[in-house]
């Protein structure tokens, strides 16, 4: 928890400095944006039966964007288990000492005012874990106005992935009256049947998210409420439906 408090404190301090200087430009080209948030639970890619954290979750991120389209990012989250503590009887991780760290790099380009694309990748590093838990994912994406389509592919076997596993996501947002925004996301998975992880399915519907978000005045914070319609995992196990509430401050 000390790590979570420190990361949140640093990001809040940076945001305060930016606000105090009236968003003064950096001494080099580009911009830095960030966010700090709390979710009622962290259900990675619709995995509601075995969430990354089934309790209140602290999450935070920073991103540097260059005018050319190049970007570097960091995102972190508390987890409700430790990747060093595995119960062979229940086949689940226990404890609560791990912390997820995602380091991203990539390029965003535009074809025209409405159509754009992204090429990049993310390295997932889990504190308090062994090297088998960490892995790299490539990212390919295309966006048209408020619609975004992405494909993320694991490049190695890990404790949670088979090399070649690909997560497909379609996300759309639409403004509503009274400053509400409707958010819809549909996720699916192509699974590689490597011997690393037991896999019975080639392709599954993973989840459907139906959500609403609303800004809290001019504070820079947004509250959200999402209903997750659970799909299926790599062993064809049905995920339960779930409601997740969130609060995020962006700067």
How would you describe this structure in keywords?
251 residues, mainly beta, Porin, twelve-stranded antiparallel barrel, two-stranded antiparallel ribbon, 1 helix, 14 strands, 8% helix, globular, disordered N terminus
Provide a descriptive summary of the structure in words.
By secondary structure, the protein is mostly beta strands. It has a single domain, classed as monomeric porin ompg (Porin, Beta Barrel). 8% of the residues lie in helices and 50% in strands. The chain contains one helix and 14 strands. The chain has one helix at residues 2-20; strands at residues 31-39, 57-65, 70-78, 86-87, 92-93, 99-110, 115-127, 135-144, 147-154, 166-175, 181-190, 203-215, 221-230, 242-250. The strands form two sheets. The protein has a twelve-stranded antiparallel β-barrel. A two-stranded antiparallel sheet has the order 4-5. β8 (135-144) and β9 form a beta hairpin. The radius of gyration is 19 Å and the shape is globular. The model is unreliable at 1-8 and 10-24 (pLDDT under 50).
């Amino acid at each position: 928890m000390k790590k979570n408090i420190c990361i949140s404190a640093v990001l809040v301090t940076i945001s305060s400095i930016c606000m105090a200087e009236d968003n003064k430009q950096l001494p080099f080209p580009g911009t830095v944006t960030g966010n700090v948030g709390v979710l009622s639970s962290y259900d990675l890619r619709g995995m509601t039966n075995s969430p990354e954290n089934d309790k209140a979750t602290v999450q935070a991120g920073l991103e540097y964007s260059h005018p050319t389209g190049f970007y570097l990012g960091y995102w972190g989250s508390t987890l409700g288990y430790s990747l060093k503590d595995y119960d062979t009887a229940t086949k689940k991780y226990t404890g609560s000492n791990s912390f997820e760290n995602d380091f991203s790099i990539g390029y965003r380009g535009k074809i025209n005012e409405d159509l754009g694309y992204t090429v990049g990748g993310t390295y997932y590093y889990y504190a308090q874990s062994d090297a088998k838990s960490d892995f790299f994912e490539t990212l390919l994406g295309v966006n048209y106005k408020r619609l975004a389509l992405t494909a993320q592919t694991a490049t190695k076997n890990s404790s949670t992935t088979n090399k070649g596993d690909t997560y497909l996501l379609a996300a759309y947002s639409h403004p509503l009256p009274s400053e509400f925004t409707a958010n819809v996301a549909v996720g699916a998975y192509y699974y590689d049947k490597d011997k690393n992880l037991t896999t019975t399915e080639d392709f599954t519907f993973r989840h459907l998210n139906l959500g609403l978000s609303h800004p809290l005045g001019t504070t820079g914070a947004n509250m959200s409420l999402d209903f997750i319609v659970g799909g299926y995992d790599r062993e064809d196990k049905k995920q339960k439906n779930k409601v997740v509430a969130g609060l995020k401050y962006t700067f």
